[in-house]
């Protein structure tokens, strides 16, 4: 039985929601406190037992490669200054086996995954989207990998969302349920409001058999005129069973501005050095704004 050892992280998007900041900086490098968002994704992959990571990049994404490379001058300076804890943090991002491939045209998520087909070969693999940070006792990807080992079929990570947001996500039409695991009848990409078959949304974590590439190879355009990964999953589900797993953990949406701000605030409140100064600053701001204070 082949185990999941490789993961694809698509990072070729233009980041238009964060312009003008992303005109020169990849959106994946926008920091949550002091760590780029993509590093949270990479650390989850490592904690899940992944051995090889391929990041699919696009034009203007060189900063991602630089971040995960060695920085000899910086590391030497930190060592000389005795800043060993900071040195350890800097080195964490460079001691990973990471590969890169460029998506030459912005044809969508499905196409970005397809670009990494030669790296994956004939093996099961994970896909992790950088717009979603997930925290929990067991890494989200590891939960899906465990389900893959049980079922030997592709497994898609899902969570329950409010009905009014179902038009923003890929949605599953569930069939049989076994605890958190679902057999799925259909996968629907961003259904119009009022037409969604459930409120179980696809949340940026996947484990696939390599057969998914057969359907991505068709290069068929879907919603938004792009090659959609959800459409290929739907076709895969017609030839071999694809499961959905309602994973445990807290998911943070950092792919849009409000979600990014709220994530930054929550992570800051979880930080011992920042929690109380931040709460004091927020209370002072609310007082000046004429709003009731927190707590």
TrEMBL record:
InterPro entries: GalU_uridylyltTrfase_bac/arc, NTP_transferase_dom, Nucleotide-diphossugar_trans. The gene is galU. The keyword Transferase applies. It catalyses: alpha-D-glucose 1-phosphate + UTP + H(+) = UDP-alpha-D-glucose + diphosphate. This is UTP--glucose-1-phosphate uridylyltransferase. Pathway: Glycolipid metabolism; diglucosyl-diacylglycerol biosynthesis; Lipid metabolism. It is an enzyme of class 2 (transferase). Transmembrane segments: none annotated. It comes from the Bacteria. The keyword Transferase applies. SUPFAM superfamilies: Nucleotide-diphospho-sugar transferases (SSF53448). Its EC number is 2.7.7.9.
């Amino acid at each position: 039985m082949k185990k999941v050892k490789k993961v694809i992280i698509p990072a070729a998007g233009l980041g238009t929601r964060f312009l003008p900041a992303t005109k020169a900086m990849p959106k994946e490098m926008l920091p949550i406190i002091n760590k780029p968002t993509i590093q949270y994704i990479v650390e989850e992959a490592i904690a899940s037992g992944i051995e090889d990571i391929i990041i699919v990049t696009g034009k203007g994404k060189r900063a991602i490669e630089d971040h995960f490379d060695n920085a000899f001058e910086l590391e030497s300076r930190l060592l000389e200054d005795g800043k060993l804890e900071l040195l350890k943090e800097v080195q964490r991002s460079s001691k990973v086996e990471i590969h890169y491939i460029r998506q030459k045209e912005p044809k969508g998520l499905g196409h970005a995954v397809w670009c990494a087909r030669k790296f994956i070969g004939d093996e099961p693999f994970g896909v992790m989207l950088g717009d979603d940070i997930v925290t929990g006792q067991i890494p989200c990807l590891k939960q899906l990998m465990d389900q893959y080992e049980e079922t030997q079929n592709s497994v898609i990570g899902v969570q329950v969302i409010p009905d009014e947001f179902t038009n923003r996500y890929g949605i599953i039409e569930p069939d049989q349920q076994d605890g958190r695991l679902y057999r799925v009848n259909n996968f629907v990409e961003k259904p119009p409001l009022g037409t969604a078959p459930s409120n179980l949304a696809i949340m940026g974590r996947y484990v696939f058999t390599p057969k998914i590439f057969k359907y991505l190879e068709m290069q068929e355009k879907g919603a938004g005129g792009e090659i959609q990964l959800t459409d290929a999953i739907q076709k895969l589900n017609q030839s071999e069973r694809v499961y959905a797993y309602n994973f445990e953990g807290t998911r943070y949406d950092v792919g849009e501005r409000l979600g990014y701000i709220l994530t930054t605030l929550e992570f800051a409140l979880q930080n011992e050095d920042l929690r109380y100064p931040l709460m004091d600053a927020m209370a002072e701001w609310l007082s000046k704004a004429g709003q009731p204070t927190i707590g």
